[in-house]
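Bug #77: duplicate submission created two jobs. Keeping one. Sequence:
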Amino acid sequence: MAGRQSAFLRRHEVEKLLQLAKGELEHLLEEDEDFPHGAREHLGQLRTLGKEAHWRWDGGSVYVWAARSSRFRERGAVLLNPALETRAVAPGTWIGFQPTSQGPAMDWETDLGVVRILHTTRRGAASAMAEELAEDAGSQGVITVCALYGDIGSSGPALIAADTAQPPLEYEAQWGLVTRLVGQPLPWWPSELRRSDVISQWTPGVTVTISEVLPDERESTLRKAASFGWPDDAAQTALTDLANSLRNQRISSLNLEIRIFGERGAHPHGDPLLIAARHRTEGYPLPRTGDRDVLAAGWRTIASSQLFEAYEPLKIGMYCDPGLLPFGPHTEVSARGPAARRWAQQLAPCAPTALHAVLADDAQGVTFYTDPATGIPVVRKGSSREGAWVFLAPLRLPDRDARLRSVILEDTVWIQTADGRIYPGPCTPGDHLWWGPGGGDQPTEAALVISQLLDDPGAEVSLADRWSQAPRGLTKLLNQSHRYGTELPRAAIEYARAKQDNDA
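Kept job's structure:
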């Protein structure tokens, strides 16, 4: 299993693990073709010092092999000993909930000793817990620690195990086997309810616990911001709506996780998976605002605010639903390009807004601008020599009567109009304008945008059905390699658009 964590063992460590006499490992390697393959360590600079490369083996693989061999199974992984599948096992007993450094856990007394189940998917948790217990004289006889992997195995939720006898060597264990050892169905919690305050409520025979999904950091930030005194109600409505949306999404994901594990996470010939907690259904889903105009107005208020309280919620909002702002995608271009330098002359310095702060992204030495023609926010980063312009592309060009004169290919697609002005190419949120071979992809976005601007320079561009709507000839022209800063005149663009066959 790719998610397990395991140490590499050198020759003397393998011999110690298997309790081999000197020279026995060589015979084992020659005689047993199933023994895990080793590899020489990468020496790097050590090679120049004349040091010999050591052989090493994946410790977990050796540990699993030992458990499945007849000679070494008592020195191998505890829960992979084949004898466990056939021997009679007395029902185990539940010891209780354990709050641990690696997360909430349950201890079970079994024929083998105490098995601790960590209800976490944190990578390396089983090994870390086993090592902690191995160093603790009062570890109450725990022999094996199992942690959740986050997937479904052949007999229930997948487990990663680490024995206290060999903490660094993790291996995959079977939920069905552990269930057999404890003598009763094991409880399972969905990830959003995998918390100590929820898990600690469970005891054998208890009914399903009804619990609440706690607000995460993003939701808490939005609800805190919604309580701020905004100049209009639309901002508060927008923040509350997004907070409710995020909570609803998490609860939907929780319910889907329960359904998937409930349907597929049980042993094929055993009891259903014991789902120990669910989210309450009363009052859910939380209400949403259906008026998108109100939401857009609210996010515009937040984006244009110069208050510190607007920064974090705006950053969350732009990530979750960038279409609510009247701008296109995040774009960054070199400040040294000729087209970018010409465009920069059209910009106006301004006081930074929350939207400027999000674009700056904690960069030092930034300056803030607005494009008066399109209204887009612009940030200048870096030195004059290596600087960059960062902005949100416009959704449309400002002048419906400004005829497209040419297209310039320089970091993004620049549009030059007949009146001599230059603009970043308009684009819809979530897309981007590019050109070149594309490694199998085609620049249909740029082709369709340019085609629309030829017909109506001031229209808000649309990239719906771009694969079928983008002119094939123009797409092929843009799909070729072009020198940085290439300018395509209107006549060449119109000619390419008119050619719809493969010879365009």
